[in-house]
Design brief:
Blueprint: E1 2-3, H1 9-15, E2 32-37, H2 41-45, H3 47-56, E3 64-69, H4 75-83, E4 88-93, E5 102-104, E6 107-112, H5 117-125, E7 131-134, H6 155-162, H7 178-192, E8 198-201, H8 208-223, H9 225-234, E9 240-243, H10 251-261, E10 263-264, E11 269-272, E12 276-280, E13 296-298, H11 302-325, H12 331-336, H13 338-353, H14 365-376, H15 385-388, H16 392-409, H17 415-427, H18 445-452, H19 466-469, H20 476-491, H21 494-502
Parallel strand pairs: 1-10, 2-3, 2-7, 3-6, 4-11, 7-8, 12-13
Antiparallel strand pairs: 4-5, 9-12
Helix pairs in contact: 5-7, 7-8, 8-9, 11-13, 11-14, 11-16, 11-17, 13-21, 16-17, 17-20, 20-21
Length: 504
């Protein structure tokens, strides 16, 4: 077994000739041009992957990544990547079982902010860093979905707003939040006469660049109004659409990399073979030549973004809770369930999702929907439904509630979306039809489970959370199908509700 590190790459390449791509660029020549906050499996299967391909083509070695972890749990990523010189194995899996494994070398450095805040700020203020990118999840933007307002009272945000980060301050402190680091780094760059970096959000939210801009400026305005105005005038926030199904790394993935390639990798990444990135070309300080490795550089990303959010991400929510209630474990199992597949493809995608998607340049929408079902059915990816059902209080309000509102306003049916929200409410009860107990992983876990516990006395209890649903509880054209769906789920079960939706 060969430990993965820079010095062992020649040996790894020799023992995997023709079966594994390894960096053929000198790792010592990598220069950091991007700071990325939130290094997880998706980032390593997506943005870092594209850069690795670019470096292997002999292009843009000055755009290597410095990863930054803000959360206590990110210490494990720091340990894994630091021990491996930033290297890791990526194994995309095709539906036919084919694999295109590679060792990725585009992450040149990793900093753990809770222990190295000064180093993080130093790197973010380096003139060579021209992009700061984010995958901080839907909830990381710290806004209330029903109003779109920034939450100034969030404890970590409030601490950053009250602290003085100037090096000469009597009680100098360091930021804790993404907002604190980004705004303080921009303040220091401005003071030093250094051009601002571009802020690139890579999260699954509509108008991710626009959202990042609003929330970062809202934080900055509460800290320093003049600085906030400067950020609004000088900093670019391009929107983008990102896509690659990437399950959480499992122990069997570590074992697979060891068995197939003889590599001891502390934290490999497994993904589907499909990958897409559509990106607005707005980078005043420069950018890598992403278009050379398949990134679509466009003027307006919104049509692509709505297509992905409302057809892929929302469809994941359709199969997640129903799939778990039916006793399935993986997305490919749920997608092979005839009833659930029909509800997902025909009733949701065709009936409620697609009518809210504008024309997308160069895309055959019917073909795209068929491709999604094939991707969900990829048995080799083994994407868990528990992963898809996690953090629902960030995902449903961000992804599905806008679909519901648009359809309601247009006078269209919302029966399937109502059933999906009801399936989330039923899932949040925490116990399945046959006594299964599953983890409800959610930043609002106690709140949503408490609401779900009141279903007997108040069938609309779950919808009364205005932060999540706004005024939907006051719209009978939504509450009527929701109450019916919840009733069937609680009395006859998920299968009976699917049959009712399908008219069987």
């Amino acid at each position: 077994m060969t430990a993965l590190r820079a010095a062992s790459l020649p040996q790894i390449a020799a023992q995997n000739a023709g079966r594994l791509t390894v960096p053929d660029y000198p790792l010592e020549e990598r220069r950091v041009g991007i700071v990325h906050i939130g290094v997880g499996g998706f980032h390593r299967a997506h943005q870092a992957y594209y850069l690795d391909r670019l470096f292997n083509a002999g292009r843009s070695p000055d755009w290597a990544i410095c990863g930054v972890g803000l959360l206590d749990g990110d210490a494990a990523m720091r340990e894994a990547l630091t021990a491996q010189d930033g290297l890791y194995t990526l194994v995309p899996k095709a539906p036919d079982g084919g694999r295109d494994a590679r060792v990725v070398g585009s992450i040149a450095e990793y900093l753990f902010a809770p222990e190295e805040p000064a180093a993080v700020l130093e790197r973010m203020t380096d003139p060579e860093v021209r992009i700061v990118s984010l995958t901080v999840t839907e909830g990381g933007y710290n806004y209330e979905p029903s109003t779109g307002e920034f939450r100034l009272e969030t404890p970590a945000v409030a601490r950053d707003l009250a602290a003085d980060f100037r090096a000469d301050a009597p009680q100098a402190a360091f930021p804790e939040t993404m907002f604190g680091f980004v705004v303080e780094a921009l303040r220091r760059r401005r003071a030093a006469g250094v051009e601002p970096f571009t802020l690139l959000s890579c999260d699954n939210v509509r108008g991710n660049g626009d959202l990042a801009r609003r929330m970062i400026i809202a934080y900055a305005a509460a800290k320093d109004a003049e600085l906030a105005a400067w950020i609004g005038e000088q900093v670019a926030f391009p929107n983008c659409m990102v896509d690659r199904i990437t399950p959480v790394t499992a122990e069997q993935d570590v074992a697979m990399v060891a068995a197939d390639h003889g590599i001891e990798d502390r934290w490999p990444v497994v993904s589907e073979d499909f990958v897409q990135w559509v990106l607005e070309d707005d980078f005043p300080a420069g950018r890598p030549a992403w278009e050379e490795v398949g990134v679509q550089m466009v003027d307006d990303v919104e049509p692509y973004e709505l297509m992905k959010l409302r057809l892929l991400n929302c469809s994941h929510q359709v199969i997640a809770y129903f799939g778990l209630l039916l006793g399935h474990t993986y997305a490919h199992e749920a997608s092979a369930d005839d009833d659930l597949a029909a509800v997902t493809r025909r009733l949701y995608m065709d009936g409620e999702g697609a009518p809210t998607v504008p024309e997308v340049p160069g895309i055959d929408l019917e073909g795209y929907k068929d491709e999604l079902m094939a991707r969900f059915s990829n048995v080799h990816v083994a994407d868990t439904l528990v992963r898809l059902a996690a953090e629902s209080s960030d995902r449903i309000p961000t992804w599905m509630v806008p679909v519901i509102r648009e359809n309601l306003d247009a006078g269209r049916d919302v029966s399937v979306c109502a059933a999906v929200v009801a399936s989330w409410a039923r899932y949040a009860e925490g116990v399945g039809e046959n006594g299964e107990v599953w983890p409800v992983v959610d930043r609002l876990r106690e709140r949503v489970m408490a609401a779900a516990a009141r279903h007997v006395e108040d069938p609309l209890a779950f919808l009364r959370d205005a932060e999540l649903f706004g005024d939907l509880v006051e719209r009978p054209e939504f509450t009527a199908p929701y109450e019916r769906a919840l009733h069937v789920l609680r009395t006859d079960g998920a299968r009976a509700l699917l049959h009712e939706l399908l008219g069987r």
